Amino acid sequence: MAAREINPMLKSALELGPVLAFFVAYLLLKDRVFMIAGREYGGFILVTAGFVPLMMLTTGILWRLTGKLSKMQVVTLVLVVVFGGLSVWLNDERFFKLKPTMIYLIFAAILGVGLVRGESYLQVVMEEMMPLAPEGWMALTRRLCLFFFALAATNEIVWRTMSTESWVWFKTFGLTAAVFVFFIFQGDIFRKYGEQDDDKDT
């Protein structure tokens, strides 16, 4: 299936919609307990049970509309299904809280392997979005690798030391804001290495 462009707002809705739906549903159901098939489930587990198929649905729609999924999206979906499924099956919210840790560790490890080999796997994924010289891609990859490790460690600290509600707020807004702020502070790399492509075209 050939890749196709879709409305950016629709794309953002499909990518962020499940996360925001999880957040809203959790706030509504967090203090409730549900009896299903003779077993008690807290609101967090019930919301997780709804989040997993919703994530599968929106990712499937995104793939259908665009004709492609990034490796990051595929890995994220697999981990959502695995860790979300374990949380629901075992009635243990800790597995779902581990998911961001595993996602960031996997991404950091992948980038780290590339760096050891003298390559930027980040460039392979994002080259069309951000034209940089090879040195710029390597510098950005090193920073992002360390950043992912830091996010994984932070998630572990938050879910192990704070309440479930605090973790939900952190996961929904804190992690997203952290990624946004990280790229804002990479301006020096874009200024230093982003202009070299222009030089090659002249």
UniProtKB/TrEMBL annotation:
A Pfam family that the UniProt record links to this protein: IspA
Bilayer disposition of the protein: Multi-pass membrane protein
Known role: Plays a role in cell envelope biogenesis, maintenance of cell envelope integrity and membrane homeostasis.
Compartment annotation: Cell inner membrane
Similarity annotation: Belongs to the YciB family.
Keywords: Cell inner membrane, Cell membrane, Membrane, Transmembrane, Transmembrane helix
Gene responsible for this protein: yciB
Parts of the chain that traverse the membrane: 12-29, 41-62, 74-90, 102-122, 143-162, 168-185
Organism, scientific name: Lacimonas salitolerans
Identification of the protein by name: Inner membrane-spanning protein YciB
Coiled-coil region list: none
PANTHER family listed in its UniProt record: INNER MEMBRANE-SPANNING PROTEIN YCIB, INTRACELLULAR SEPTATION PROTEIN A-RELATED
